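Submission checklist for the structure archive. All mandatory fields must be present; incomplete records are returned to the submitter.

[x] Identifier: 4-carboxymuconolactone decarboxylase
[x] Organism: Plantactinospora alkalitolerans
[x] Residue count: 126
[x] Sequence attached
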Amino acid sequence: MDDRERHEAGMVVRREVLGDAHVDRAVANTDEFTADFQDLITRYAWGDIWTRPGLDRRTRSCVTLAVLAALHHDDELAMHVRAALRNGLTREEVREVLLQVSVYAGVPAANRAFKVAQETLRQEDG
């Protein structure tokens, strides 16, 4: 794929995983300063990585949740908890991923991640 095709494919996956509302907000907030970054993440993260056939979206969501939790990227973690639900993970599976994080990344990382996920799931309940 060339860059244009990668961007188009990435935008499709980005919308499917994160939802139109999230992507529409990101696009609407794009300006001259952030345009290159938005293009980069759409092509690279969504167009190159999330479109690969080697892992299904559920598995990619599990990996993403674990890494974001381990690195304390709370805002991204909340966004990807929502995405994980959209990708078919259950709340129980999200919990299992975070329990796994507690062993391999530490209890403090999992503690923060559980708080973020708990609040995100409450918001999803409306």
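[x] Structure attached
Curator remark: The chain has seven helices and no strands. The mean pLDDT is 97.
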